Amino acid sequence: MPISHHTAETLPHQFFLLSHHPEKGRLDDDSAEPRGSLLCAAAVAELCTSGLIEDRDGRAVRTGAPVPAGLGPFVAAVLGDVPADRPRRWLDVLEQQRWWTAEEAVRDELAAAGVITVERRRFRSARIHVADPGPVRGLRDRVRAAARNDPGAATIRETVLAVLAIEGAVNTVFGWRDLWGHKPAVRALRDRFDRELPGLREAAVGSAALRRTPAST
Predict the structure, then answer these.
(1) Which residues of the chain have pLDDT under 50?
(2) Domain with 123 in it: what CATH number?
(3) Separation CA 41–CA 4 (nearest Å)
(4) Is this structure's pTM higher than 0.90?
(5) Strand, helix or coil at 65?
Protein backbone atom coordinates (compact mmCIF):
# COMPACT_ATOMS: atom_id res chain seq x y z
CA MET A 1 0.00 0.00 0.00
CA PRO A 2 1.54 3.31 -0.99
CA ILE A 3 2.04 5.93 1.67
CA SER A 4 -0.25 8.89 1.01
CA HIS A 5 0.04 12.35 2.57
CA HIS A 6 -1.94 12.95 5.78
CA THR A 7 -2.54 9.21 6.01
CA ALA A 8 1.02 8.12 6.59
CA GLU A 9 3.16 10.99 5.45
CA THR A 10 2.99 13.25 8.45
CA LEU A 11 6.43 13.48 9.98
CA PRO A 12 5.51 11.46 13.10
CA HIS A 13 4.17 8.66 10.88
CA GLN A 14 7.32 8.69 8.76
CA PHE A 15 9.57 8.75 11.81
CA PHE A 16 7.72 5.75 13.25
CA LEU A 17 8.11 3.82 9.99
CA LEU A 18 11.80 4.69 9.76
CA SER A 19 12.25 3.29 13.28
CA HIS A 20 10.72 -0.06 12.26
CA HIS A 21 13.06 -3.04 12.13
CA PRO A 22 11.48 -5.32 9.49
CA GLU A 23 13.47 -8.44 10.39
CA LYS A 24 12.51 -8.21 14.06
CA GLY A 25 8.97 -6.96 13.53
CA ARG A 26 9.37 -4.20 16.09
CA LEU A 27 10.80 -0.73 16.48
CA ASP A 28 14.45 0.08 17.05
CA ASP A 29 15.59 -0.78 20.58
CA ASP A 30 18.24 1.92 20.96
CA SER A 31 15.80 4.80 20.57
CA ALA A 32 12.98 3.26 22.62
CA GLU A 33 13.37 5.55 25.64
CA PRO A 34 13.31 8.93 23.82
CA ARG A 35 10.98 7.83 21.01
CA GLY A 36 7.95 9.56 22.49
CA SER A 37 9.83 12.86 22.70
CA LEU A 38 11.13 12.44 19.15
CA LEU A 39 7.64 11.71 17.81
CA CYS A 40 6.36 14.84 19.54
CA ALA A 41 9.23 16.83 18.00
CA ALA A 42 8.31 15.39 14.59
CA ALA A 43 4.72 16.53 15.17
CA VAL A 44 5.89 20.03 16.04
CA ALA A 45 8.05 20.05 12.90
CA GLU A 46 4.96 19.06 10.90
CA LEU A 47 3.09 22.00 12.38
CA CYS A 48 5.96 24.37 11.61
CA THR A 49 6.39 23.23 8.02
CA SER A 50 2.60 23.44 7.56
CA GLY A 51 2.64 27.08 8.70
CA LEU A 52 0.53 26.48 11.82
CA ILE A 53 3.11 27.47 14.43
CA GLU A 54 6.28 29.53 14.25
CA ASP A 55 9.10 30.82 16.40
CA ARG A 56 8.70 34.26 17.90
CA ASP A 57 11.41 35.49 20.25
CA GLY A 58 12.40 31.93 21.08
CA ARG A 59 8.89 30.66 21.76
CA ALA A 60 6.31 28.65 19.85
CA VAL A 61 3.36 30.74 18.65
CA ARG A 62 0.21 29.78 16.76
CA THR A 63 0.07 31.62 13.43
CA GLY A 64 -3.71 31.62 13.14
CA ALA A 65 -3.58 29.74 9.84
CA PRO A 66 -6.56 27.42 9.24
CA VAL A 67 -6.03 23.86 10.40
CA PRO A 68 -6.19 21.32 7.55
CA ALA A 69 -8.91 18.72 7.93
CA GLY A 70 -6.46 15.86 7.34
CA LEU A 71 -3.88 16.91 9.92
CA GLY A 72 -4.39 13.74 11.94
CA PRO A 73 -5.38 13.29 15.61
CA PHE A 74 -1.87 13.10 17.07
CA VAL A 75 -0.50 16.17 15.30
CA ALA A 76 -3.72 18.04 16.04
CA ALA A 77 -3.39 17.16 19.72
CA VAL A 78 0.17 18.53 19.77
CA LEU A 79 -1.12 21.71 18.14
CA GLY A 80 -3.55 21.97 21.03
CA ASP A 81 -0.58 22.10 23.39
CA VAL A 82 0.28 25.53 21.97
CA PRO A 83 -2.35 27.95 23.33
CA ALA A 84 -3.76 30.29 20.72
CA ASP A 85 -3.33 33.27 23.04
CA ARG A 86 -0.02 32.53 24.73
CA PRO A 87 3.48 31.77 23.39
CA ARG A 88 5.05 28.69 24.89
CA ARG A 89 8.67 27.62 25.22
CA TRP A 90 9.60 24.93 22.71
CA LEU A 91 10.69 22.53 25.44
CA ASP A 92 7.41 23.09 27.28
CA VAL A 93 5.49 22.10 24.13
CA LEU A 94 7.38 18.80 24.06
CA GLU A 95 7.00 18.22 27.79
CA GLN A 96 3.20 18.19 28.00
CA GLN A 97 3.32 14.49 28.92
CA ARG A 98 2.08 13.61 25.44
CA TRP A 99 5.39 11.81 24.86
CA TRP A 100 4.11 9.12 27.22
CA THR A 101 1.43 7.94 24.75
CA ALA A 102 2.93 9.21 21.49
CA GLU A 103 4.18 5.86 20.19
CA GLU A 104 0.83 4.15 20.78
CA ALA A 105 -1.09 7.05 19.22
CA VAL A 106 1.01 7.10 16.05
CA ARG A 107 1.02 3.31 15.79
CA ASP A 108 -2.77 3.18 16.06
CA GLU A 109 -3.19 5.84 13.35
CA LEU A 110 -0.94 3.87 10.99
CA ALA A 111 -2.80 0.65 11.76
CA ALA A 112 -6.17 2.32 11.16
CA ALA A 113 -4.89 3.54 7.79
CA GLY A 114 -3.77 0.03 6.85
CA VAL A 115 -0.13 1.07 6.57
CA ILE A 116 0.89 -1.39 9.29
CA THR A 117 -0.64 -4.38 11.00
CA VAL A 118 -0.08 -5.11 14.67
CA GLU A 119 0.06 -8.76 15.73
CA ARG A 120 -0.79 -9.05 19.43
CA ARG A 121 0.93 -11.88 21.26
CA ARG A 122 0.43 -13.18 24.78
CA PHE A 123 3.37 -12.61 27.12
CA ARG A 124 5.45 -11.04 24.35
CA SER A 125 5.53 -7.64 22.71
CA ALA A 126 3.36 -7.18 19.63
CA ARG A 127 4.87 -7.71 16.20
CA ILE A 128 4.53 -4.85 13.72
CA HIS A 129 4.37 -5.51 9.99
CA VAL A 130 4.54 -2.83 7.28
CA ALA A 131 2.02 -3.58 4.54
CA ASP A 132 4.23 -2.21 1.73
CA PRO A 133 7.92 -1.95 2.75
CA GLY A 134 9.00 -0.43 -0.58
CA PRO A 135 8.08 3.21 0.10
CA VAL A 136 9.62 2.97 3.59
CA ARG A 137 12.88 1.66 2.11
CA GLY A 138 12.85 4.53 -0.37
CA LEU A 139 12.28 7.07 2.39
CA ARG A 140 15.06 5.55 4.49
CA ASP A 141 17.44 5.72 1.53
CA ARG A 142 16.66 9.40 0.97
CA VAL A 143 17.08 10.25 4.64
CA ARG A 144 20.38 8.41 4.80
CA ALA A 145 21.57 10.13 1.64
CA ALA A 146 20.97 13.50 3.28
CA ALA A 147 23.70 12.75 5.82
CA ARG A 148 26.03 10.85 3.52
CA ASN A 149 25.94 12.90 0.36
CA ASP A 150 24.79 16.46 -0.34
CA PRO A 151 22.59 17.73 2.51
CA GLY A 152 21.59 20.67 0.34
CA ALA A 153 19.72 18.28 -1.96
CA ALA A 154 17.46 17.05 0.86
CA THR A 155 13.98 18.45 1.39
CA ILE A 156 13.25 20.10 4.72
CA ARG A 157 11.17 17.05 5.68
CA GLU A 158 14.06 14.70 4.93
CA THR A 159 16.32 17.04 6.90
CA VAL A 160 13.97 16.90 9.90
CA LEU A 161 13.81 13.11 9.80
CA ALA A 162 17.57 12.77 9.42
CA VAL A 163 18.35 15.12 12.27
CA LEU A 164 15.84 13.55 14.65
CA ALA A 165 17.18 10.10 13.79
CA ILE A 166 20.73 11.28 14.46
CA GLU A 167 19.87 13.02 17.73
CA GLY A 168 17.81 10.02 18.86
CA ALA A 169 20.39 7.40 17.83
CA VAL A 170 17.80 5.55 15.72
CA ASN A 171 19.94 2.66 14.50
CA THR A 172 17.46 1.50 11.86
CA VAL A 173 18.39 4.70 10.04
CA PHE A 174 21.98 5.43 11.07
CA GLY A 175 24.62 3.29 12.70
CA TRP A 176 27.73 5.02 13.95
CA ARG A 177 29.60 3.73 10.89
CA ASP A 178 27.05 5.45 8.62
CA LEU A 179 27.96 8.86 10.05
CA TRP A 180 31.70 8.28 10.44
CA GLY A 181 33.50 10.59 8.06
CA HIS A 182 30.33 12.60 7.30
CA LYS A 183 30.56 15.17 10.07
CA PRO A 184 30.38 18.20 7.72
CA ALA A 185 27.14 16.90 6.18
CA VAL A 186 25.64 16.21 9.61
CA ARG A 187 26.63 19.69 10.75
CA ALA A 188 25.03 21.19 7.64
CA LEU A 189 21.80 19.28 8.32
CA ARG A 190 21.68 20.53 11.90
CA ASP A 191 22.41 24.08 10.78
CA ARG A 192 19.57 23.96 8.25
CA PHE A 193 17.19 22.52 10.81
CA ASP A 194 18.08 25.34 13.23
CA ARG A 195 17.66 28.01 10.54
CA GLU A 196 14.27 26.83 9.37
CA LEU A 197 12.89 25.53 12.68
CA PRO A 198 14.65 27.67 15.29
CA GLY A 199 14.48 26.41 18.85
CA LEU A 200 13.02 23.01 18.05
CA ARG A 201 16.17 20.88 17.77
CA GLU A 202 17.55 22.12 21.08
CA ALA A 203 14.19 21.37 22.71
CA ALA A 204 14.05 17.91 21.10
CA VAL A 205 17.55 17.08 22.34
CA GLY A 206 16.64 18.28 25.83
CA SER A 207 13.37 16.35 25.92
CA ALA A 208 15.03 13.16 24.63
CA ALA A 209 17.76 13.51 27.27
CA LEU A 210 15.11 13.63 29.99
CA ARG A 211 13.73 10.30 28.81
CA ARG A 212 17.20 8.72 28.94
CA THR A 213 17.94 10.05 32.44
CA PRO A 214 17.39 7.38 35.13
CA ALA A 215 14.66 8.27 37.58
CA SER A 216 16.00 9.59 40.83
CA THR A 217 15.62 7.37 43.86
Answers:
(1) 1-7, 216-217
(2) 1.10.3630.10
(3) 21
(4) yes
(5) coil
